[in-house]
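[Help] Beginner question about ligand-bound structures

Sorry if this is basic. My supervisor gave me a protein sequence and a SMILES string for shikimate-3-phosphate and asked me to "get the holo structure". I don't really know what that means in practice or what format the answer should be in. Inputs are pasted below exactly as I got them.
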Amino acid sequence: MKTLTLKGLQRCRGSVDLPGSKSIANRALLMAALAHEPTEIKHLLRSDDTERMLEALAALGVKVCESTTTQVTVVGCGGQWPLQPASLYLGNAGTAMRPLTAVLAATLAAPVLLTGDARMQERPIADLVDALDEGGADISYQNALGYPPLLISQRLQGGTIHVSGSASSQYISALLMALPLAPQASRLVLTGDVVSWPYIELTLTMLRDFGIKIIQVSQQEFHIEGQQQYQSPGEYWVEGDASAASYWLAAGVLGGGPLRIEGVGGKSIQGDIGFIAYLQQMGGKVTVHDEYIDVQGGQLHGIDADFNAIPDAAMTFATLALFAKGRTAIRNVANWRIKETDRLHAMATELRKSGAVVEEGEDYLIIDPPEQLKAAQIATYDDHRMAMCFSLLGFSDVGVTIEDPDCCAKTYPNYFSELQRLT
Ligand SMILES: O=C(O)C1=C[C@@H](OP(=O)(O)O)[C@@H](O)[C@H](O)C1
Ligand SMILES: C=C(OP(=O)(O)O)C(=O)O
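Answer (accepted):
No worries, everyone starts somewhere. Holo just means with the ligand present. The predicted complex, written as structure tokens, is below.
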């Protein structure tokens, strides 16, 4: 297995251009495909997750013309897919699997099977499937009940639909993207405590950009007219990835800066920009500009906070905690368990290798850093964020060895070459 050893990094300075946001890129590709006119998408992320979406759109007959790898024109077909593939393979991309399940249920011309890699087949999707079934679709599990692969065989109609948002906000985002295409109007009622709320705001913002009207009646209820048409904004710029920015923000603090992070800032539509407020609370010196961020170092101390709104960037605090004075508690992240791996367990296991004392709760981690960090070889569980978070241990004297660093290709293929350039 490939490994990468990082040790005694002294600084992280200069300027880094973030890749496009995964969450925005996959939404923009799908919404552009659903529009009736072409959309030029600029600063597109190219990574495993966006390749899975691009492959799915190609299989559905959507033309995507590349000016450069990060600038493409999607020739939308208004939901009338030119081709009817029997099946689509979506890897482990939640931002492809969940929205495509709902959108294809709403635009179905012939039955289609949606599948993914081994881990995707362990990531629950019943809350979304139940909601789509309530709206008139017919979706059946081809393997384990409640998990992909799924066969979609009857169209979504609309009406009153309940969905639980307690495991993933992606189910709600998926329904918000699909219900405007249904023949009837819908009333979407959210049940349970909704997790990762800022991603729903992101979906609503982007739907507005693509001409879709959603009426939010309350925190729990949306009214959505059916038979709406997605409209191309002409051009669409994908912001830099705010979750990816968290690694540079952390590296900038540990390496003393000055580091400029380009592509995302105070005007961001991504919830993970909220990472900065927690980092500042922890002692990080960060200045936020509209479209870039400057990091100047800082002395870190532990914090105790609820990270439900930023589950992806929250992982970065787990490894930053190893450099902080005192205890850090990362709370309300139960759905870490159903992501690329069981992140609560994986994180606790790997943090302990550095000498930290870690309590793993059902939905939290409490981390007490060691007096002296130990050199560790870190397993990454095919989880891009495990690899990127633990790279921060390269700033210790003892260093770290990262197993399978290439798994960062899910969202950030050149992360480690950028780290080498800046340190
Ligand atoms: O909608 C999105 O783009 C995402 C929502 C979040 O998932 P959950 O809602 O499952 O927490 C996040 O973890 C994921 O990386 C991207
Ligand atoms: C949870 C993640 O991905 P997905 O979109 O597959 O859910 C992630 O990128 O951290």
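A couple of things worth pointing out: The first strand starts at residue 3 and ends at 6. The domain at 3-19+239-422 is CATH 3.65.10.10 (UDP-n-acetylglucosamine1-carboxyvinyl-transferase; Chain). Feel free to follow up in the thread.
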